[in-house]
Fold each of these.
Amino acid sequence: MINTLISSLFFAITITTAVPIRSSDTDVYICKGPRSKKYHHRKNCRGLKRCSTRIYKVCLKEATNKGRTLCGWED
Ligand SMILES: [Zn+2]
């Protein structure tokens, strides 16, 4: 009886801790054109339509480290 309770509790803890916290490693999209200084949350953003290179997927931290700011088409 108590063993069942403990094992189900342990199971619940395992499930909870297994969920990754992804707040700090959000993926964003960037263009590597010479005048591109923005990052985008959406790959089909209007700000990426004029991109002359291919669109790269990087983590948010990487984009902001290089001085990129959020695209004006997004909020
Ligand atoms: Zn954008």
Note: The CA atoms of residues 30 and 54 lie 9 Å apart.
Amino acid sequence: MDSRISARALSQALGGWRTREPAYEALADGIRLLCLDNRLAPRTTLPAERELALTLGLSRSTVAAAYRSLRDTGHIASTRGSGSVTLPLRRRDPGRTDPHEGMIDLQQASPPAWPGLAGTIAEVAGGAAALVSRVGYDVLGRIELRTAIAEHYRDRGIPTSPGEVLVTTGAQSAIHLIASVLLGRGDRVLIETPTYPHAADALRRAGARLVGVPVTTSDGWDLDRAEQAFARTLPVLAYLMPDFQNPTGRSMSALERATIHRAGERAGSVLVLDETTAELDIDRGPVPRGFDDGDPAAVIRLGSLGKTVWGGLRVGWIRADADLIRRLVAARPAHDLGTPEFEQAVATALLADSERIVAQRSTLLREGRDALTAALATELPAWSVPVARGGVSLWIELDAALSSALVMDVRSRGVLLSAGPRFSVDGGHDRHLRIPFTATPGELRRAASLLAQSWHDVRAGAPVSFVEQVDALV
Ligand SMILES: Cc1ncc(COP(=O)(O)O)c(C=O)c1O
């Protein structure tokens, strides 16, 4: 079924789009970026020109010119009667299997596979004859793997039995499953902003109304806002990343954990703690405990091997109270019949090696973080680059709110990035850019140099009043 986007929703998604002259090209670029980010799915009907013009405070001819420009570049098609509809993105070179070949892809923060992975896979493949004699997938997870995951929690001081663990196909499917079981249409969900966008998408699709609580690289979680949001909206659940939050890289202090835990308990909310990034500890500092006292049914933890080992290994898990695990298992087959046993066997073997894996990750991410931080300090000294103690990315504050324009420009120079607003829950973050440091140091240095060239051009092309106004805010 085709969908449509209202003028108000499009205006919100566009954020501060007016980043260059002429205005119609800036508007067209804003819509192009939404298509590239998949925030505007193919076959979405755009608002009528008159309606969008009214909402954005533009003349109708400006919107008409923007739509014409989008037609010329193959991003939309317009037909009399059914309006303007976004098109699937065209391959630049249809002969190429990977449309991003030769580009530095910093859209996803995917570290390369752990070097020992190929060896582990080969070892597990040695037992393939026994494996293929069984069904090969299951909806709950093999007992060997659930036991290994439970032990992993016990080592962290969180007593866990295998009956409290469900193996999923990556953390993303865990988020989706939890949302589909616990949420109904219109339910409130508290979520950090900025956040991991695919979680926000999954929660919205389950019908949630998201309530954003700000997290900044300098001050962490806004506890006043969090307490107010819990008390006023009584969210059914809160989706949080307490350790090395994606994208800010911040970890909650003991006080932040305790305050949020208490506020969640008072509101009767279930706290969903996404710990996919929790072990990506670069500086290996002390990790505060939290969320492990009180009602165990009110805290769900989820994890994955996607960042610590390899994104291609689709193994994640949910740790929750045994009753909820049973409810999740009952609901799961509607969209997923289980995790492949081969991958589960690989994951079981890997968990036995987790200390070595985490140490290697830490070294790899440190190299990336240090290379990127140093390159940005040289190339773009006006940007405010935080100290990231862990995680996969830097959440950078730019010296002008031109994130989307920058991302469009640098794309044409061979660097793929997502603009700040992609990580926002309620609009904004035009001053921010997420740069993952999961690529090689060489690629990161090259990306920083191309970003500097782009930034020079984008700032120079922005309306004077815009840049001055922005500078006045700094
Ligand atoms: C915070 C967070 N949660 C979940 C995921 C999805 O993980 P998986 O690849 O295991 O589905 C990611 C991946 O980027 C992530 O950053």
Note: Residues 170-172, 196, 241, 246, 274, 276-277, 304, 306, 311, 316 surround pyridoxal-5'-phosphate (CB under 6 Å).
